[in-house]
């Protein structure tokens, strides 16, 4: 194998590894967002069961501050919208990274690099 080909394969391999790391980070982000979404949906469900006589407190630093029902529900709904938007963004990022990774994988694979004949090029004649 020539030095130029070896360098090209090494560079492609390094790029593939970076894509895999980016993909792993995006998967972790998606999992965190799923957990946040579940938590906030649970809070919303709990808010729907509250009566107007119930008191809602918001934790700000080490202090609990009384909060209006409508404001608390609005804050949770805003968070849910934000989280859903982030999930869509991360899913798009995941799809893009998976496509790039697959392309780079093909570039790095020995059959694509010219070390082995491609299976598509082989023909068999049965007599």
From TrEMBL:
<keyword id="KW-0143">Chaperone</keyword>
<dbReference type="GO" id="GO:0005737">
    <property type="term" value="C:cytoplasm"/>
</dbReference>
<feature type="coiled-coil region">
    <location>
        <begin position="2"/>
        <end position="107"/>
    </location>
</feature>
<dbReference type="GO" id="GO:0006457">
    <property type="term" value="P:protein folding"/>
</dbReference>
<dbReference type="InterPro" id="IPR009053">
    <property type="entry name" value="Prefoldin"/>
</dbReference>
<dbReference type="GO" id="GO:0051087">
    <property type="term" value="F:protein-folding chaperone binding"/>
</dbReference>
<dbReference type="GO" id="GO:0051131">
    <property type="term" value="P:chaperone-mediated protein complex assembly"/>
</dbReference>
<dbReference type="GO" id="GO:0051082">
    <property type="term" value="F:unfolded protein binding"/>
</dbReference>
<dbReference type="InterPro" id="IPR002777">
    <property type="entry name" value="PFD_beta-like"/>
</dbReference>
<keyword id="KW-0175">Coiled coil</keyword>
<protein>
    <recommendedName>
        <fullName>Prefoldin beta-like protein</fullName>
    </recommendedName>
</protein>
<dbReference type="Pfam" id="PF01920">
    <property type="entry name" value="Prefoldin_2"/>
</dbReference>
<dbReference type="GO" id="GO:0016272">
    <property type="term" value="C:prefoldin complex"/>
</dbReference>
<comment type="similarity">
    <text>Belongs to the prefoldin subunit beta family.</text>
</comment>
């Amino acid at each position: 194998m020539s030095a130029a080909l070896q360098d090209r394969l090494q560079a492609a391999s390094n790029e593939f590894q970076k894509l895999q790391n980016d993909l792993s980070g995006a998967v972790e982000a998606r999992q965190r967002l799923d957990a946040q979404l579940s938590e906030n949906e649970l809070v919303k469900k709990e808010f729907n069961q509250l009566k107007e006589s119930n008191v809602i407190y918001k934790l700000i630093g080490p202090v609990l501050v009384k909060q209006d029902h409508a404001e608390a529900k609005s804050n949770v709904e805003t968070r849910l919208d934000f989280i859903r938007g982030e999930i869509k963004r991360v899913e798009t990022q995941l799809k893009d990274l998976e496509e790039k990774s697959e392309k780079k994988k093909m570039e790095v694979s020995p059959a694509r690099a010219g070390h082995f004949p491609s299976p598509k090029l082989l023909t068999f004649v049965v007599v």
